[in-house]
Amino acid sequence: MTRPIFRLPIIFLAAQILAHAGSAETAPLSASLLENDVLLLRIRHLTVNFGQEFLAAQPTNQLAGVILDLRSADGDKNAVAAASGFFAARKFPLAILVNEPTRGAAVMLAADLRAAGDGILIGSTNFSGKPPDIAVTVSGADEKNFLANPFFNPAPQKNPPLSATNDLLPFVDHTSEADLVRQRVKDGEEDEAATPRVEPSQPVIRDPALARALDLFKALAVLHPAQG
Most buried by CB count within 10 Å: which residue of 25, 84, 162, 202? Predict the structure, then answer.
């Protein structure tokens, strides 16, 4: 029997692991469960205790994959080999998120995992290690906001001025759907009370690197459905 890999709306349950310095903001590792079966590991500082930290963070759910977020991370160089071996032994589908501030042991871990074929690199092209397999473009300010809140919605970019030579502009209908509904109500074609109420949509992960990692696991689920 095939087990659907993504069954529920996005669940982002922040579970801070190893409150090392008293504050979750400075914990070397934190864990979150996405869509009920993808484990997000946010590394701030890679330590020799990574294996124990991972096991403490791992939920009882059957995992579809692990996202190792090494963005803006550093770490102890003597922790790299053990962390690489930990993932190699478990063979989780793995996505590794990196960015320009990823440094030191975190760069070494990303390189080891990618060289061994244990994960896919996703991140900015200015990463100091091997170029990412999937590149994303995001400003430094937005990236900081995404790291704090993956549902952060950046302000929309202003549209560039339209060219004066755009002869098709007069033929474009700029009437919005809301305007059309109001016009129908005004003409007596539709009662406002009968207009269906739009239910609020589920939260959308807008962090581009994280969203691409989730898309990757969805694609893997289609190609290699889990057997149950």
Answer: 84
Residue 58 belongs to domain spanning: 2-153+203-227
Query: 3-state SS of 164-223?
Result: CCCCCHHHCCCCCHHHHHHHHHHCCCCCHHHCCCCCCCCCCCCCHHHHHHHHHHHHHHHH
Q: How far apart are CA 6 and CA 58, in angstroms?
A: 18
b/e 173-204 (16+ beta carbons within 10 angstroms → b)? eeeeeeeeeeeeeeeeeeeeeeeeeeeeeeee
The length of the chain in residues reads 228
Whole-model pTM over 0.90 = no
**Which tens digits make up the pLDDT trace of 14-31?**
333 333 333 445 688 999
In a domain, 41, yes or no: yes
How far apart are the C-alpha atoms of 49 and 114, rounded to whole Å?
21
Tell me what pLDDT residue 197 has: 59
Residue type present at position 56 = A
DSSP state of 102: -
Residue 45: strand, helix, or coil: strand
- Please give the single-letter amino acid code of residue 43: I
